[in-house]
Amino acid sequence: MQAASRESYAAALAALNAYAGRSDATAVAGTAKEILSVASVLAGEPRLRRALIDPSRTGDDRGELLGSVLGGKIGTDAVDLLKALVAGRWSSPTELLTAIEQLGVDGLLASAEASGDLAEVEDELFRFGQVVSGTPQLAATIGDSTLAVDRRVALATELLEGKAKPATVTLAQQSVRGFGGRSFASALSKLVEAAAERRERDVAYVTVAEPLSEAEEQRLGASLAQRYGREVSVKVTVDPDVLGGVRVLIGSDLYDGTVARRLADVRASLA
């Protein structure tokens, strides 16, 4: 987002956090789902999105326009939060749409935090990604943007319903829909990182040839936390192809000490 859009989103996020602080987790989750439903509708309404960022209208006018469109269709809490969002300045209709979707996601994470489930939601999203990527046919189906999105969402729901937290199910559905215009895998990673960010943590994606023990995982997390000056959520993927050693990706930093990488370096030097 550009600077003006970031400022507008920060104000809306503050309003969301204030609302979450005075409401129960179930109500916040319901409001978040309503906001996501509005994002889905607006995705197919480019003229309305342009009107909602029109600088010739005041923020109050844009809020009233949105309220007139949504009145009676969603709850007043969701309408009020969306009015706070469109009252700001936006660089483009696309950035407004992205912000509405992000506000819905942040609302779901706030509800999970209020119910004490945020860490579990983060882990469930990561594990769902591992299950999908570990099954080629499933990965091809869920990630195939040429297939009807409702069919792919239904598949993800079937895999998670009754086995994961409700917030996890809704967020996974959002990743299948392409959260923020991303691919499924990229959207899911972004949601894992958003959950960790709400817990004030970075995410370290760790690849090893064999599973780490709990003690090894804790030592690695502590070492990374000391290096980065912030708590780190360690997400481990087991891949026998790396042969041995550890590969760690945290943010844009990649540390590759795997045997496979060292062998590749030797081959390159010999060539």
Automatic annotation (TrEMBL):
Q: Give the primary localization class.
A: membrane
Range of residues in the leader sequence: none
Q: How does it sit in the membrane?
A: Peripheral membrane protein
Q: Which GO terms describe its cellular component?
A: plasma membrane; proton-transporting ATP synthase complex
> Where does the UniProt annotation locate this protein?
Cell membrane; Membrane
Task: Cite the entry's keywords alphabetically.
Answer: ATP synthesis, Cell membrane, CF(1), Hydrogen ion transport, Ion transport, Membrane, Transport
User: Which molecular function term from Gene Ontology is one that the record holds?
Assistant: proton-transporting ATP synthase activity, rotational mechanism
* Entry-linked InterPro entries: ATPase_OSCP/dsu (IPR000711)
PANTHER family xref list? ATP SYNTHASE DELTA CHAIN
Q: Which family does it belong to?
A: Belongs to the ATPase delta chain family.
| Function description | F(1)F(0) ATP synthase produces ATP from ADP in the presence of a proton or sodium gradient. F-type ATPases consist of two structural domains, F(1) containing the extramembraneous catalytic core and F(0) containing the membrane proton channel, linked together by a central stalk and a peripheral stalk. During catalysis, ATP synthesis in the catalytic domain of F(1) is coupled via a rotary mechanism of the central stalk subunits to proton translocation.
Which NCBIfam families does its entry note? PRK13430.1
What name does the UniProt record give this protein?
Answer: ATP synthase subunit delta
Protein's organism: Allocatelliglobosispora scoriae
